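Schema walkthrough. Field components (list of strings):
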Amino acid sequence: NAGVMQNPRHLVRRRGQEARLRCSPMKGHSHVYWYRQLPEEGLKFMVYLQKENIIDESGMPKERFSAEFPKEGPSILRIQQVVRGDSAAYFCASTEAGIDTQYFGPGTRLTVL
Amino acid sequence: RKEVEQDPGPFNVPEGATVAFNCTYSNSASQSFFWYRQDCRKEPKLLMSVYSSGNEDGRFTAQLNRASQYISLLIRDSKLSDSATYLCVVNDSGGSNYKLTFGKGTLLTVNP
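Field assembly_structure (string):
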């Protein structure tokens, strides 16, 4: 039973480019969460999605960041016009409906040059 | 006051030692509490949930004091493989049960 999968594991972008991070939840999980971990900081909640619905995006920066979880395929976290401050580890987690134990993927480490 | 505050660490202990981590949280409406461990440059992994009655899993014991808004983790007979960052995690309630709030973590190094 595969766990939460994220790709790419490492992503390097230059300032102004776009970054797309993908997350496939565990089999049977329909709820996806994205967190960001800045260097030397704790994980911060960004967004909570169910299939085709954004439930809570209160942790998302107001500009340049968006997330989706389509009916088919992985969840995508998209960062437009990246800046150096976006360099961080981005973790995705998933749960079954109504269960609050979140299981994390290996993360994507984004480096902005 | 930070939402979830942990001992800043780092902790360096010899094998076999007992080590305790402390954590306080600010949101009295929080419903669920966890300890995760995170190895260097890896994802957080659930170590154990924390219940009001306290719970134990082998060498690990977790306690919750709702009145004091305090959570603890005790590791007995520590092993080299216990070296990691320990994260105190609280669900941010207010009607939701999904928004996890993480402490910054406490780094533990167990030395031979």
